[in-house]
Amino acid sequence: MYIIYWIINEQRNKTYVGFSDDLPRRLQEHKNKKVKSTQDFGKLSCYKLETVDSLAKAIKREKYWKSCAGRKKLKVSFGKI
Q1: For a Cys staple, 34 with which of 14, 29, 76, 81, CB 3.0–4.6 Å?
Q2: pTM to 2 decimals?
């Protein structure tokens, strides 16, 4: 199982979408600044978007959430950023 997640830093107006088969480990990597894309995020808020059962589906869904349409849907759904 893979989890697609959304990370937000509201102070800096930054977001990140990713997926992982081990979300707690992956979030720890983000918090420990081991992920280049989120090193300067500071305080993070994480939201689970969805769970899928295969790597191929996870990649496809991550691409959707990173697209313009997906980001607009996130902003409307969560009312953030």
Answers
A1: 29
A2: 0.88
